Amino acid sequence: MIALDAKSRETMAANLDSNIENNNDNMEKCYENYILIDVGANLTNKKYSRDLDSVIQRAKDSGVQKIMVTGTSVKGSKEALRLTRIYPGTLYSTAGIHPHDAKSYTDESWTELKMLAQNPECVAVGECGLDYNRNFSEPEEQRKVFRKHIELAIELKKPLFVHERDAHEDLLAILNEFKGKLPSVLVHCFTGSCENALSYLNNGFYIGLTGYLCKDKSDTGVRKLLVDGTIPLDKLVVETDAPFMYPNTRASKLPTHVKDGLTERSMTFLHRYCTFQRNEPCSLPAIVEMVAAFMNKKPEEVALSTSFNAMKLFGLS
Ligand SMILES: [Zn+2]
């Protein structure tokens, strides 16, 4: 036994501490995060009004480095833009009027939306499009307002962030009116059939996938799209559509190999912070792992590709 003087003991203790710290660092590196981009989260929703800081911090901790805040009305687009100024480099916004809200269109509000869309933090025009599923606005009104968005996107040379529900043919027909002039197009939160996806892809459009993956019970929908390899990795982006589209990884119809692909880390974020009532961007790693499992690819590969696509598509720095 060697008697140590106080100084040596201190040095040893300090070395030990720093060893433990290094080990922890290494452990953390082992579990190193994906780098992900959530291209659609409704962070202006009042469900986040009390703890947005924590929501964004959790997203970052889970690996979501950048989030695009969806603008679905003039007021919402203004608020989304305001958030980008509070979290520069992390949040980006879109400016648009959701088809549900097409009836709210006025010439004055459109002038305001145009101004919002011109800001550099606003990286896409939308969300816009057609939703014949619920027809909260008259289809005729929806088509008119959608055309306005397309013209604006062309004018500003910004990508279009498109929403479509039960309106595939009309949506495609309207977009085709502008063929040759169209900017990049993202069909966000895709929930349609393989056939629909294929015709979007044939037009060079990007497809955005969400936790809807867990809900899809059809034989011809989103899951098949991934299993068959119909959707190439270079046209895919991922999004949470938070607070909606909670990815229910406990869904009984989810194949075993997909459930097995979920890591403890992503499940911790999902189960600790997200619910059916309030999904959060930190659920994105779980979505990416499921997408990867369905595609029979590594989640790291899906993470890398989708982030690269999002950066390229929306010009994120
Ligand atoms: Zn939508």
TrEMBL record:
<protein>
    <recommendedName>
        <fullName>Deoxyribonuclease TATDN1</fullName>
    </recommendedName>
</protein>
<feature type="binding site">
    <location>
        <position position="188"/>
    </location>
    <ligand>
        <name>a divalent metal cation 2</name>
    </ligand>
</feature>
<dbReference type="InterPro" id="IPR018228">
    <property type="entry name" value="DNase_TatD-rel_CS"/>
</dbReference>
<dbReference type="GO" id="GO:0008310">
    <property type="term" value="F:single-stranded DNA 3'-5' DNA exonuclease activity"/>
</dbReference>
<dbReference type="Pfam" id="PF01026">
    <property type="entry name" value="TatD_DNase"/>
</dbReference>
<feature type="binding site">
    <location>
        <position position="163"/>
    </location>
    <ligand>
        <name>a divalent metal cation 2</name>
    </ligand>
</feature>
<keyword id="KW-0963">Cytoplasm</keyword>
<dbReference type="GO" id="GO:0005829">
    <property type="term" value="C:cytosol"/>
</dbReference>
<feature type="binding site">
    <location>
        <position position="241"/>
    </location>
    <ligand>
        <name>a divalent metal cation 1</name>
    </ligand>
</feature>
<dbReference type="InterPro" id="IPR050891">
    <property type="entry name" value="TatD-type_Hydrolase"/>
</dbReference>
<keyword id="KW-0540">Nuclease</keyword>
<dbReference type="InterPro" id="IPR001130">
    <property type="entry name" value="TatD-like"/>
</dbReference>
<dbReference type="GO" id="GO:0046872">
    <property type="term" value="F:metal ion binding"/>
</dbReference>
<keyword id="KW-0460">Magnesium</keyword>
<keyword id="KW-0378">Hydrolase</keyword>
<keyword id="KW-0479">Metal-binding</keyword>
<comment type="similarity">
    <text>Belongs to the metallo-dependent hydrolases superfamily. TatD-type hydrolase family.</text>
</comment>
<keyword id="KW-0269">Exonuclease</keyword>
<feature type="binding site">
    <location>
        <position position="127"/>
    </location>
    <ligand>
        <name>a divalent metal cation 1</name>
    </ligand>
</feature>
<dbReference type="InterPro" id="IPR032466">
    <property type="entry name" value="Metal_Hydrolase"/>
</dbReference>
<comment type="function">
    <text>Deoxyribonuclease which catalyzes (in vitro) the decatenation of kinetoplast DNA, which are circular DNA catenated to each other, producing linear DNA molecules. Plays an important role in chromosomal segregation and cell cycle progression during eye development probably via its DNA decatenation activity.</text>
</comment>
